[in-house]
Every structure is written in C-alpha cells, then in structure tokens.
Amino acid sequence: MYKNLLFLVSLFCACTTHALSLKLTDINNNTQQFDLNINSIGVRTLSVKENTYQGKVPFKAMPLINITKELPITATLKFIASDGFSSLIPAETLFYSKATPYLAIEESGWPKSLRGGKTAGPFYLIWENAEAGQIKQEQWPFQITELVIQQDAKIQYKAIFPDYLSSKAQSGFEVFVKNCFVCHQLNHIGDAAIGPDLNQPMNPTDYFQAEALKKFIRDPRSVRQWQSMLMPTFDQETLSERDILALIQYLTEIKQSVEVEIDR
Length: 264
Ligand code: HEC
Prior knowledge:
There is one protein chain. This protein is an alpha+beta fold. The chain has 2 domains: 14-153, Alpha-Beta Complex (Sulfite Oxidase, Chain A, domain 2), CATH 3.90.420; 157-263, Cytochrome c-like domain (Cytochrome Bc1 Complex, Chain D, domain 2, Orthogonal Bundle). Helix content is 29%, strand content 19%. A 5-stranded mixed sheet has the order 2-1-9-5-6. A hairpin with a 4-residue loop joins strand 5 and strand 6 (86-90). Helix 5 packs across helix 8 (241-254). Residues 5-16 have low confidence and may be disordered. Heme C (HEC) binds at residues 179-180, 182-184, 194-196, 198, 204, 216-217, 220, 229-232, 234, 239, 247.
C-alpha cells in the first residue's frame, strides 16, 4: 500500500517541470534559496492583462507574500533579473495597495518573445487587480532570479537623500527612485549601469536648459535621436508634469552634495 503510494508520488514528480531556484536576501543580509515549480504549494492559475504576453499565457503563480512574508510598510523589495537589471518596488505598493503581486513560475512552453529570444522566466512578477492598485508598467519585472529585501530607499540610500532637501525635492527623490534609479546611478550610488550618473561628473541641470531637460525626461527623442538610444519615453500617467518638476528640483538640490565635497 505504502509502496504504491510512493510509486504514485514519484510518478507525479516525474511529470512536473524541474524546480527553478530563487534567491532571497533579507534585511540582515541572510540568504535563503527557494526551489519552486508549478506544483509547489500555494501555486494557482492566473490570467492577467500584461504587456509581455498580452494575456495569452495562463500563468501558474505563487503569491509573492508566500516567499517574502509580509514586509514592513517602509521596506523596499529589489527584483534582480538574470541580466543584472534590477527594479525596486516599495512594500507599500506590494502589500498595502489594492493590487496583489504574484510570482509567475516558468512552465515549459512560455513563448520566447523577449529580446534575445528569451522568455520572461524563470520568474515574472504579475499582478491581480493591477489597475485598482495603480501598478505602473515598470512594476512588472521579468526574468527574476533574485529578491533582496531592503530598508526604505530613504534610509538605504541616505547619502543621496540628505536632510537639507526641500519637501518638493524629497518627493522628487521618490520619483527618481521609482523611475530612473533602475538605469541611472547618482553620486555613484545604486546598481544601475545603463544610463549615465545623473550628478557626476556633472549634473544635467547644469548643461541642459530648463525647458530642454523637461522635454528630454518626458521624451528623449524629442531632443536628440540616435539608433541605439535606450532611454524610454514617460507618459503623463507614469510621470506627471508635477513629478518632472519635483525630479528637476531634486536634481538641482542634490548638486550641493558634490559641491560641498569639492570645496574642501
Ligand atoms: C531604461 C533605462 C533608463 C531609464 C528608466 C531612464 N533613463 Fe535616462 N538615460 C538612459 C540612457 C541609456 C541614457 C543615455 C542616452 C540613451 O542611450 O538613451 C539616458 C540619458 C539621460 C539623460 C541625459 C544625460 C546626458 O548627458 O545625455 C538624462 C538627463 C536622463 N537620462 C534622465 C533620466 C531621468 C530623470 C529618468 C527618470 C524619470 C530616466 N533618465 C530614466 C536610460 C534610462
């Protein structure tokens, strides 16, 4: 009887796709490895409206909270992709909004529709009720291999969130972290390596005219164009006029952080 049961279990396991591994680093820098597959406990089938597969793929996904557990509202979760690209999403959006994040687990047969003939796997962050939670396009990271739990960006990146910032510049910092930090470093802080540092050696507010800078951030190609240009366009919904002004205020005020050093 037990033998039969064991046989059945092993047969069942043979049918599953092999486990995919996900690394999780907590706030104290301890790491944990999860081996997940589409039959892992907590996984359900989910069809959501998303951009990569246009809703054509029914995902097998696990609630993100099963992996990270509930995070304090001030924490930030960093999603690291297989190509090193990383995105930060505040715990406030993940666990304190109307949307629910799931980690879709790659199943054989996901279309290879991403750049370089790749799929969105091994893990792809998808959302239930994305609209109600006002989840932005850049908050659907794919090809995830690693999660890192961090403090609030204002604490984690204190060096670029100095006390002297005005309240407008403070909200500009938040806009920066959410939309720009994935590609740009500032004062050599951050993991990004796609676009230039936005304060060193020189700050764009020093070499762009104010109007041109606003235009550039909204739509880089309206200022200058070349074939391998990578910076995306930001629509009104992602980045309001007010966000852009706050961002520019932040860039203007953060200049001091370098000038003070140079003066010494
Ligand atoms: C997907 C990556 C990416 C994101 C996101 C991004 N940028 Fe860029 N940015 C670039 C790259 C790459 C360049 C260099 C030009 C190019 O190749 O597009 C650039 C250039 C710039 C420049 C011009 C610098 C110069 O000296 O030419 C500014 C200013 C700038 N970005 C600001 C921003 C701001 C502000 C945000 C956030 C709202 C942002 N970028 C978001 C990738 C990005």
